[in-house]
Amino acid sequence: MNVNPYLPKPAKLIETVEMTAIEKLFRFEFVDEEDAKSFSYKPGQFVTVSVPGVGESPISICRSPTRPGPLELLIRRIGRVTNAIHKLKPGDIVGIRGPLGNGFPMEEMKGYDVLLIAGGLGIAPLMSVLQYVIDKREEYGDVMLLYGVRSYQEALFRDMAIDLVKYPEKTGVKAFLSFEREDPVFSKLMEEHPKNVRKGVVTVLFECADPYIKPDKVCAVVCGPPVMYRFVLKELVKRDVPPERIYLTLERRMKCGIGKCGHCVVGGATAIRYVCKDGPVFTYLDVLAVRGLV
Amino acid sequence: MRYAKLPKERFTELFEVLERFGEVHAPVKKGKTFLFTEVMSPSEASLSYNRTMIPPKKYFVRPFEEILKVKVGKGYEPVVEEPKKVVLLGLHACDINALRVLDSVYLDEPEDPYYRSRRANAFIVGVSCEPDEYCFCKSMGADYAWTGFDLFLHDIGEVYLIRVGSARGEAVVESIKRAIDEPTRGDFVKLRDLELKRSKMFKRELNASLLPDIVDSLYESEVWAKFSDKCLACGTCNLVCPTCRCYDTIEKIELNLEDGVRLRRWDSCFMRSHALVAGGLNFRPTRLDRFRHRYNCKSSIEPKTNMFFCVGCGRCSAFCPAGIDHVDVLNSLWGG
Prior knowledge:
Chain A is an alpha/beta fold. Chain A has three domains: 9-100, Elongation Factor Tu (Ef-tu), domain 3 (Beta Barrel), CATH 2.40.30.10; 113-248, Rossmann fold; 250-294, Dihydroorotate dehydrogenase B (pyrk subunit), domain 3, CATH 2.10.240. Chain A has helices spanning 33-38, 80-86, 123-135, 158-166, 168-171, 184-192, 205-209, 228-238, 284-289; strands spanning 9-18, 23-30, 46-51, 55-60, 71-76, 93-100, 113-119, 143-149, 173-179, 197-199, 218-223, 246-249, 265-266, 273-274, 281-283. Chain A has a seven-stranded mixed β-sheet, sandwiched between helices. A six-stranded antiparallel β-sheet of chain A has the order 4-3-6-1-2-5. In chain A, strands 13-14 form a two-stranded antiparallel sheet. In chain A, strand 11, helix 8 (228-238) and strand 12 form a beta-alpha-beta unit. The radius of gyration of chain A is 19 Å and the shape is globular. The model of chain A has no long low-confidence stretch (mean pLDDT 96). The mean pLDDT of chain B is 97. The longest helix of chain B has 16 residues, at 185-200. In chain B, a hairpin with a 3-residue loop joins strand 8 (151-155) and strand 9. At the A-B interface, strand 4, helix 2 and strand 13 of A face strand 4, strand 5, helix 3, helix 7 and strand 10 of B.
C-alpha cells in the first residue's frame, strides 16, 4: 500500500495568538521530523486539521513558505471541529493532512503588480501571498492591499494593517483599509490617512487605489466571504483587468480534500470542478465557464 | 480481441476455476429484485437478470467503512485491510463502464488505497444482457464494454462466446482449455445478429449529443421545478447509482473515551448537509438546487474516459419512490 492520503500526520500545538473574540492564530509543528522536512507548500494551499475524536476541517495556510517556522493557521471558531481546535492547549496533538489544493501561481505572477483584495477572514489565505511578495519584493511590481473589515474589534491583523497604512515605505505595500462600523481607532486613522482609509465595504477602496491600478500589468488576488466576489469582480472587470489575471480562492464544504468525496463539486454539466483539487484558486476565466463558482 | 467458446453445459468448469481465484459473487434473486452476493454454485447465480438494486460499487467503496483508527488526544492510524479476492460474475456492460468512471475518480492521484487494493483483488466477468423498460445505456454510449473486464460472456444460445480482456482472464481460459473451443465464423455471425437484435430492443432513448450543454445552459428551465417538486429528496437515486460516489466522513469514539474510528459512508447530494459549510452557509440551499446539481453531475463527461458520468443503467428510475424517471426529466428538458 502506498502512502495513505487520508492519514493525518501528528502535529503539536506550539502556541496560539488571540486575534479577535472568535479568531485565533495557531502555530503547529509536526511531531515527526521527516514530516516537517517533507512539508513544502505554495501560497494559497490549505491543510486539514483533525482533532482526534472530533473530526477534520479544511484550513488555509496563513504564512508564506518564504518564512520557515511553524505552520500558521488562522481559525475562526464557527463549527464543531473549529470549536474543538479553539479549546486546544499548547502541547496538544492534532492531525494535519496536506498541503492540499492548487495554490496561487506565484511564478506566473512574477513581474506583475499584485493587487490583493481581502474581506474579513479572507485575509488568512492572502497573508501567505502578501508575505511572499514582500519577501520577494524585487520579483514583483507594485503591491497593493485592499482590506475590508467590519470594525476594529473584528479586524484580523489589525496592527499590521495600521502599520501598512502608516508606514508604506517599510514594506513597499500600498495599503487601503475600509471599515463598516464606527470606532475611534479606525476613525482617527481615516482622518490621518484620508487617501487610504474609508468607511464602507471593501469595494469603496477601488477609488483610492485607482491611481495605482494598471490593468495591463496587474494581477488581482481576491478572497472574502462568498457574497463579496460578485461585487469585487464587477469592479475589476470595469477596470479592464483581464479575466485570466484575476485569481479568487473559494470556500466550499470539503471532507477529503483530494477530489474524491464530492462535497465541494461545483459547476454545470459542461464544466464540473472540485474546489479542493482543481482549486481552491480559480481565475475569472473559470468563473465564466463554471456555473455557480461565485 | 482474443475470443474463446465455452459450451453452457461445461460452465461449472469455469466456475470452479473462478472459485480458485476468490469468493464468487453473482446476481441472486432477492424478493422483487436482484442482489450481488456470494454464490457457492453456478445454479445459485441468475445470469439473465435485469439489474441489481445496489450496484457493484459496494465492493470497492463500502456503504459504511472504517478508514482510520483514532486514539483520542493522540492521533490516527490507518485501518489495514487484509486483501480479499473476489470474482464478480455477471456484470452488465453498463456496470463495467461505471467502474471505469469510478476508477477515474478513486485511482486519480492521490489514489485511494482501499479502493486500489479491492480493485486489484477483483476479477470481473461480464455477461451480455437485454434491455428492459428502464435501460438507456445505449443512449449514454455505455451499452458496450470494450475494456474493464477480465472475461466477458456473450450468451449466443448453446454456448458462451467469451471475450478475453486481460492476462488473468487468459490464464483462466487456459486452465479450462479442455472445455474451450475456438469460435467459428458461424458463432461470430450469431454474436453479430444477437447484438443487432439487442440494439433494436431499447425502448428508452435520450439524446446525448450536446447533452451537457443543454443541461447546463437550460439551468433556468421550469422543467427542473416540475420534477423537483415531486422529489422526496430521499437519496435513493444516489445509493443505487453505479457512479454516485460521494461519501461523508464521521468520527466516533468508544465509551472509554480513548479509542475511536473515522468512518466513511455513502452520502447523497440530495441531503441538505451536502454543501453546507460551518457557519450555516449552504451552497445548494434548496431542493431545486440539489436536484439540478445531480442532473448536471450525471450529464457531465468524465475527461479521462470521455464517458458520461451516467451509464444509463436505469436504476434511479426503476427504484425512485416518487416515480421520477431520469430519461423523462432530461427528455422534458429537450422539449419532449
